[in-house]
Design brief:
Layout lengths: L1 H12 L15 E4 L2 E7 L6 E9 L2 E5 L6 H14 L5 E5 L5 H4 L2 H8 L3 E4 H11 L6 H10 L4 H10 L2 H5 L8 E3 L4 E4 L2 E8 L6 E6 L4 E5 L21 H7 L1 H5 L6 E4 L8 H24 L8 H8 L6 H20 L3 E6 L2 E6 L22
Parallel strand pairs: 4-5, 5-6, 6-7, 11-12
Antiparallel strand pairs: 1-2, 2-3, 3-4, 8-9, 9-10, 10-11, 13-14
Helix pairs in contact: 11-13, 12-13
The structure holds zinc ion (ZN).
């Protein structure tokens, strides 16, 4: 699809990537005073995550941990042996509950006797999902059927569920809470916690005014658009509205901040990227609204609209994320008054209401289907 590639290239060309190649797993690369970039592999189409190692006077802080996999542990051991200059890990900070971020938190905290720093929402959600307390089989099936997923596909979605507990090792029994707007000391400097919603319950990004550096986690990514989904444990969530509302917190930061994202490369051009992502979602919303309007009074379920947002072939893992993301767009359209929910026979159908006023150009770039909360 050369058009998509051209479009993606055009967007990337509007950002700057000042740090060049990524460090190979098991090595680190300095990107700002006291801050080092490392990468760990992931067993998905999205094949890597960026983690951050911050030097303290008496040790090191880790931001995000990698997925619970022997290979990740081996790379960590290499870093411990070669890069720490004999100093211990004294702090483990986790931006949010997804397995690539929190997966090895328990192992790292235990190995180094270090405290875990997370938001309340993400620590508790991780514990609850990992231990099967929420999102159990029956509520999941009801949610999927109510949104048009065919009965024979529900089983595919159910199989996907075991992945979370596999990717996340046992967590510490206690944690230190990160709170929006509150400070966190890292590397001898004051950082500020910025909470975003929609991708995870309470995703923590970290902002350091002294360094003009934002550790954005998954809230602002340079190339792919963050997966924003509605999941069975919160079936009426308006995740996309929440996610986009959070952009105002990032727009308040300097336009020339260095952004350290969890996937892709460190970049500058924060405000440009927020503009690109806003335009991307507006275009996706307009596409779905048009497709729903074309169906007249019959309307559409979220499942009906998955091929509108994701026309390419999806594997069994990707379809779970694609459906969650499509439903998030439906709920956002409902909140904005562009569609109306019409339950019929226990199934939620959406019909066109007020049209989107201005014409929004169609968007042909790709959404990321990355590891999420199930
Ligand atoms: Zn994530």
């Amino acid at each position: 699809m050369p058009d998509s590639l051209d479009h993606a290239q055009r967007l990337l060309a509007q950002l700057r990537f000042p740090h060049g190649d990524a460090p190979v797993p098991g090595t680190i690369k300095n990107v700002a005073p006291s801050i080092h970039w490392l990468r760990m592999p992931l067993p998905f189409q999205l094949n890597h995550i960026n983690l951050w190692l911050i030097e303290e006077h008496d040790g090191w802080a880790i931001v995000d941990t990698g997925i619970n996999m022997a290979e990740t542990q081996r790379h960590w051991e290499t870093i411990f042996a070669r890069e720490l200059h004999g100093k211990p890990i004294v702090k483990v900070v986790v931006t949010h509950m997804h397995p690539d971020h929190v997966g090895l938190a328990g192992w790292l905290c235990e190995r180094w006797d270090a405290p875990l720093h997370m938001t309340l929402g993400d620590y508790m959600s991780s514990q609850a999902i990992r231990n099967g307390i929420v999102d159990a089989g029956e509520s999941r099936g009801t949610h999927l059927l109510a949104n048009g997923v065919p009965a024979d596909k529900v089983e595919t979605f159910a199989r996907h569920r075991g992945g979370y507990a596999k990717g996340v090792g046992p967590l510490p029994q206690s944690f230190d809470r990160l709170i929006h707007g509150h400070p966190l000391m890292l590397g001898g400097r004051r950082w500020q916690v910025i909470v975003g919603r929609g991708h995870a319950p309470e995703h923590a990004s970290l902002w350091c005014p002294d360094l003009n550096v934002l550790i954005s986690g998954d809230q602002v990514l340079p190339k792919i658009s963050t997966n924003v989904g509605v999941w069975p444990n919160e079936p009426r969530a308006d995740s996309l509205s929440w996610f986009l509302d959070g952009f105002t917190r990032f727009r308040a930061l300097p336009a020339d901040a260095l952004v350290l994202p969890s996937h892709g490369f460190p970049f500058t051009g924060l405000h440009t990227r927020l503009d690109q992502l806003t335009a991307h979602h507006d275009a996706r919303l307009a596409e779905i609204a048009a497709a729903i309007a074309a169906r007249g009074e019959e309307g559409a379920t979220a499942w009906d609209m998955v091929p509108i947002l994701f026309p390419r072939h999806l594997d069994n893992n990707q379809v779970v994320f694609a459906f969650a993301e499509t439903l998030a767009h439906m709920h956002c359209l409902e909140t904005r008054g562009h569609v109306e929910r019409r339950p019929r026979g226990g199934v939620h159908r959406f019909v066109a209401a007020a049209p989107i006023p201005t014409s929004v150009p169609l968007d042909d770039s790709d959404d990321a289907l990355e590891v999420g909360p199930v």
